[in-house]
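Changelog entry: the Probable peptidoglycan glycosyltransferase FtsW record was regenerated in this release. Current contents:
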Amino acid sequence: MGNDTKMQERTPRPRQDARGGVPARRDQAGAERRRTGGRRQSGAAQDGIAERLIAGVPARIMRPRLIFLCCLVALVAFGLLMVYSASAVEAASDGYAPTHYLERQALFALGGTILIVVMAFIPNLFDHFKRWLAWPLWGVALVLLAAVTLVGMVGGGAQRWISLGFFTLQPSELLKPALILVVAKLLSEYYAERAIDINTYAARMAIAVGVPLVFIIVQPDLGTTLIIGMTVFTMMFLAGLPVRYALFFVAVIAVGGVLAMIAAPYRLQRFLVTMDPWADPYGDGYQATLAIMAFASGGLFGRGIGNSTIKYNYLPEAHNDYILAVIGEELGFVGTVLFFAVFALLIWSAFKIASESQTVFGRLVAEGCAVVLAVQFLVNALGIIGVLPMTGKTLPFISYGGSSMIASMILAGLILRASIESEAQTVYDMRRDSFAVMSRADAGSAHVGTSTAGEARPRRTSGFSVYDGAGAGGRQAAPAHPRTARPARDGSFGRVDLGPDSADRLRSRGPQVRRAPRTSSRRDRYDR
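Regenerated C-alpha cells:
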C-alpha cells in the first residue's frame, strides 16, 4: 500500500490551463499536425484517432466535396449570367426574345443537374460502370460518331453535329465521359488488378481510343482530338506509365500536331495568326484582334456586367467560343483572374477527391474528368488570349451549348460520385476492424482511457496477485515450484513465479532437482 501511494505521488498530473481544466484535445492535435507537417496520418494512427466529421462524413472526404460543389454552382450560375449578357443583343437581332439563349442554357443546366442527382443516388454506380456498363456507353457514343458522317450537320467547314429538332447534338462531347470510364477500367485491370496481360491491354486500349479518334479527325475536329489525347496520356501516366514511354507518347503527339497543320493549310494559317494576329486584322486575324481589344477595353476592373460593346455584332460567337472575351471586357483583369481562380479551385478539389478514392478505378475516373475539364478550359482560354491557335472549343460550364453543358455536368457528376464512394468501407477496412481492440465507431468515445479486456478478476498465487481479463475465466494457477517459491513481500516488487517450464530447468543447479508433477489444469501462455 505504501509503495502504491508513492508511485501515485510520483505520477505527474496533467498540466492545467488558466481555467483549471486540462488542455483541450485540439492542442494535442495541433501539436501532432506541426510534428507531421500537416500530412495525413495513415494506418494504425488513423484507426486510433477519431476523425472529425462533417455531416456524418469524414472531413477529409467532405471538405473537398463541399468546395467542388460550391465552385460548380458558382460557375454554372456565372455562366448563365454571362450567356445572357453576351447573347441578348444577338437574340434580339435574330428575332428572338433577349432571354432566348439564357432559357435554353438554363434547361441544359437543369438536365445536367438531374443527371448528377441520379448518379449520386444510384448505389455502387462505379461497380456497375466497371463490370458491364462502360463498354456499352462507349459503344453508344461510337454509333453517334459514325452517324455524324452520314447525317451530320455541316457548319463552319466541319461536320460535327446531329440535329434532334429541339437542339443539335455533338457526339464528340458525349464521348469524353464514356471514354474516361473505359480507359479507367483498362488501366485498373492492367496496373492494379493484373487481370489482363500486356497484349490484351494494348489491343483494347488501341480500339477504345483509336477508333473514336478516327471518326473525330474525319469531321475534322483537331481540338477534341488534342483534348482526348492529352487526357488519355495523363491518365496512363498517373496509373503508372513508365517515363520513357511517356516521353515517346509526347513525341508522337507533337509530331502528329505538326503533320496535322501541314495537311490542312487553314490550321497552319491559324498558327501564323497566333504568332502575329495584327498581320491581317480584317481577315484571318479578325476574331483574334477583337478579343485582344475586348480585354484591353476592360482594363483593370471592367466596364460592368452587361456593358460590353464587343458583343454588338462585332465579335462572332460572342456567347459561345469567345465568351471569355466578353468576360474580360465586362469584369476586367481582376474579375477574370477571380474567375480563373474559382475554376482552378474546382480542379484542385477534384484531384483531392480522387486522392481519397478507395479504388484505383474511382481515382482514375475522377482524375480523368478533372483533366478533361482543365485541358478544355486551357485550350479555350489560351486560344482567346493568343497563346495557342483557336480551335473552337467551348469554355466548360460557361459557353452556350447543350452538348457542352450536359457533357461537363456529367464529368462533374462522376467526380462527385467518386467522392461519395470514398465513404464506402473496403474489404481491407473490415479486416483491420476485425483485428482491432476497438472498432472505428468506438474511437474517441467513452472507451478511450479504459480497459477493453473486461472486468478484472484477482486470484492469489504464491507471493503475488494475478489479475485475469475477461477471457481467462475458469483457469487455475499452477502450483509454485518448490525451489522458486518465495514468501510474500510488501509492495509491488515481489518475485514473479514463472512456474515449471523450460526456464526453470535451465536455472536448475543439478540433476538431483525433483520437479513437481504437472496438474491437469495446464497454464496458458498468456498467464505468464
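Strands lie at 53-54, 57-58, 153-155, 158-163, 168-169, 457-460, 465-468.
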